[in-house]
Specification:
mainly alpha
Length: 281
């Protein structure tokens, strides 16, 4: 069975992944709009699609033998951040009020989204590359910084846009991640952010990429949404590596990971908000 966790596209009582849109002027480059409040799974933060594959068989002597797979625990918590519209059986978040008019994203909105995303990926990669406990995730195939840099340069050249500075959404989240890992005891919390952010773009984020491509880029597919291997092989491999790492965690460390879910949604959602009018530039 395939489970997915949609990134909320509007603020709720949980403050999960995307803040509510605010009214601000914007350029009407496109006549089509994005309805940020309809039930949607356009942007998925986690996709527990191969739980049985990702979860390696526990030996009786394993210290984690009594714990369920960490990705299952993350999934259970994240599903509660859905509204009832998005997940009738498990959603518990309050449904946001719908705006009078759907938001119309511009190319500058999308460029800002890419610039802020790049800033966060830079920090994620720096943390992974600087910690031997996370060595298994180095050069995993998930990295996106080089691809985003190409896309940012392409958009600027193709449409005559000036590259913006990293916005507050990206700056704040990057700074939060940088300050997060002070020692090995913080790795489990970091992995919640690592998992949610990477898999957001690897899974449902590609659907948003296709939508933005049609809306803003004349059908061009960005490098951000291309991987050098089959994603259906990449996803279970990285998930299995996360499960293997989590075997070493105590119950307290696992709870620290799980409890970081709302923060991971909020950090990534603020960046996603550029596309839905939720984050000022």
């Amino acid at each position: 069975m395939r489970f997915s966790i949609a990134l909320l596209l509007a603020v709720s009582s949980t403050n999960a992944f995307v803040p509510s849109p605010v009214n601000r002027p914007h350029s009407r480059q496109c006549s089509r709009s994005i309805d940020s409040h309809r039930p949607t799974f356009l942007f998925m933060s986690t996709e527990i699609a191969e739980t049985s594959t990702a979860s390696l068989t526990e030996e009786p002597s394993s210290p984690a033998a009594d714990f369920p797979p960490i990705l299952e625990e993350l999934r259970d918590v994240a599903m509660k951040l859905h509204t009832r519209e998005q997940s009738p059986k498990e959603g518990k978040a309050a449904a946001p009020a719908k705006p009078a008019e759907p938001y119309v994203p511009t190319r500058m909105d999308y460029l800002q989204f890419l610039v802020d995303s790049h800033a966060v990926y830079v920090v994620l990669e720096e943390i992974v590359n600087g910690n031997e406990k996370l060595a298994v995730f180095q050069n995993s195939g998930m990295e996106r910084t080089a691809e985003l840099e190409k896309d940012i340069m392409w958009m600027c050249n193709e449409y005559g846009l000036e590259r913006p500075e990293v916005g507050m959404a990206g700056k704040n989240y990057a700074e939060e991640l940088t300050a997060m890992v002070k020692g090995d005891e913080d790795i489990s919390e970091f992995m919640c952010h690592f998992y949610n952010y990477y898999f957001a773009h690897l899974a449902g984020g590609r659907m948003i990429g296709k939508q933005m491509s049609k809306l803003l880029l004349d059908g061009e597919t960005l490098e951000f949404y291309k991987w050098g291997e089959n994603v259906n092989e990449l996803k279970p491999r990285v998930k299995a590596q996360i499960e293997e790492l989590a075997k070493q965690w105590s119950r307290e460390e696992r709870d620290k990971c799980i409890n970081a879910t709302a923060g991971a949604f909020k950090g990534g959602g603020a960046i996603n908000g550029y596309l839905y009018g939720g984050s000022p530039h």
